[in-house]
Amino acid sequence: MIFSGEVMSDKYLAFVVQELKPYIDSAFSTKRNRANTMMMGSSMGGLISIYAICAYPEVFGAVGCLSTHWPVIFFDTDHYFSSAMNEYMQQHLPNPKTHKIYFDYGNKTLDSMYKPYQEKVDAIMMKAGYHKKNWITKEFLGDDHSEQSWRKRLTIPLLFLMQRNSLDVE
Fold first, then answer.
1. Of 88, 27, 21, the residue nearest 58 (C-alpha)
2. Is pTM beyond 0.85 here?
3. In this structure, are residues 136 and 145 in contact, taking their beta carbons and an 8 Å threshold?
4. Exposed/middle/buried for 128, CB within 10 Å: 0-12, 13-18, 19+?
5. pLDDT on residue 1
6. Is the pLDDT of residue 39 over 90?
7. Which CATH number among 3.30.950.10, 3.40.50.1820, 3.90.1150.10, 3.40.50.20 corresponds to the domain 32-162?
8. Which secondary-structure segment (H or E) carries 41?
9. For residue 115, with 0-12 CB atoms within 10 Å meaning exposed, 13-18 middle and 19 or more buried, which class applies?
10. Which residues pair with 100 in a beta bridge?
């Protein structure tokens, strides 16, 4: 697989963890612990969110991944990226006793590609010990890959991720 330009995901997350979050925590009244630190994104933002909780499990206690763009590029017929990401998740998913993860996708436009990728991720989640108290994957029939669809269902991941339950809280 060939990308043009430098991959910036590690630099982006380092900025969020080492600069942005400390600034927000110092400038505003926040609950700074992992249990109260979450990230959420759609499409490629869903990818960086799941990567964030795997790379920084001590910082992020929950992530929401809406319409996660698992295939990354369309001409990747060997599914190189999604296979690599699945392997990474198998090795780096955080402890399900202390972390929550939400995934969703629609079945229209770009989202119509995501179900087989998400099913592989769901198998990884189950094998890692995640269950309905700390992980949800939802399919939204009729929803497409758009801000309108994400806005329509945004309360679902927010309520799930912020709900207190039997997870170990710091």
1. 21
2. yes
3. no
4. middle
5. 45
6. yes
7. 3.40.50.1820
8. strand 38-42
9. middle
10. 62
